[in-house]
Amino acid sequence: MSSSAEEIWAILREVVESQKETDKKIKEVTANIGRLGNQLGEFIEDTVRPAAVRLFRERGIDVHEVQQNVSVQRGDGGLEVDLMVANDLDLVAVECKSNLKQQDIDEHLARLAKIKRLLPKYANTRVMGAVAAMVIPDNVARYAYSKGLFVIGQSGEHLEIRNDAEFKPAVW
Hints:
By secondary structure, this protein is an alpha/beta fold. It contains three helices and six strands; from the N terminus they run H-E-E-E-H-E-H-E-E. The protein has helices at residues 3-58, 102-118, 138-146; strands at 65-74, 77-86, 90-99, 126-135, 150-155, 158-161. It has a six-stranded mixed β-sheet, sandwiched between helices. It comes from Candidatus Methylumidiphilus alinenensis. InterPro entries: Restrct_endonuc-II-like (IPR011335), tRNA_endonuc-like_dom_sf (IPR011856). This is DUF3782 domain-containing protein.
């Protein structure tokens, strides 16, 4: 084999090794981003939880119970709810995100439709929904509102329900 062919093969081996190292680094970065995303989601839930009682009481829903990270599996159905605030008559299931997207709303609407079946202790309650996020694009907030969801977002140093006084939540 000529020296130029050997040099080419040596370069190719270096490229392959370099690509393996790059792939390994990408996997590490992806895993770190995933962990950071989970921590950010937990931070948002922890921020919304204490404000939820005040926010919903201001809207006439006298909250007595707050549950975080509710997970249920019955038969072939299951669901996870970030935050649930309830009293004897009402339940509001809150989905918490760092950056709210329309897909998140659609997924939450599907989740809300399952609550009474998968959590039968709430079968006789008014089930409502809310979304909370650090970043809520205007078009996404309007979409959530149009679907009958409370929209919770940051206002200065506090959280607020952004729906106007005429808002009527959808009830499942």
